[in-house]
Amino acid sequence: xxxxxxxxxxxxxxxxxxxxxxxxxxxxxxxxxxxxxxxxxxxxxxxxxxxxxxxxxxxxxxxxxxxxxxxxxxxxxxxxxxxxxxxxxxxxxxxxxxxxxxxxxxxxxxxxxxxxxxxxxxxxxxxxxxxxxxxxxxxxxxxxxxxxxxxxxxxxxxxxxxxxxxxxxxxxxxxxxxxxxxxxxxxxxxxxxxxxxxxxxxxxxxxxxxxxxxxxxxxxxxxxxxxxxxxxxxxxxxxx
Length: 240
What we know:
Elements: E1 12-14, E2 26-30, H1 43-48, E3 52-55, H2 64-67, H3 76-86, H4 102-116, E4 126-127, E5 130-131, E6 136-141, H5 143-154, E7 159-163, E8 169-170, E9 175-176, E10 191-196, H6 202-212, E11 219-222
Parallel strand pairs: 2-3, 2-6, 6-7, 7-10, 10-11
Antiparallel strand pairs: 1-3, 4-5, 8-9
């Protein structure tokens, strides 16, 4: 898209026509804070299942929990996610431009794919210039999982799969962001989430998944030890 002048790492797109059933779903993956689209580790499993994947480039710089916990507006997290997803100027604590936003970028990408590869059927994931969310599985790691949750709250998606997020909150002790408890457009049996029991925010994640009303049977708490313990929250990436 000619309007994009920054945050222009390549999107990653993967599919295997030989394995696809008719009308395959599309997985939209969003990386975590500081992440890049190429870091998606479970491409092969998804392709074997006949599912298409778009791992999209977006502004992964400031995490919601880096800018909102001390902000006086309880809806800071919702406003940041709205701005980063749709490009609307809802709050000034992040400097995202409209062309940085996730959903417009996905629309532009799908339109481009349909225009240049019409036989592959990418237009099926669009509906009159908007995303056809009923055909999309939203997922992500950390900040990206929070974006997936926000999309699934607002749109009826095929499925929402959350890896170690969101934990949008403010104050001390932490108060959960109000948006987490709002009604979901996506039926709750389509929601899935997981996190490692030793993550720094494991207790808070348990609270946010309960606030989102994810069915307990659809939640996984991992116990596997990583090969190496690196960084201030070493268990945070184990699930993905």
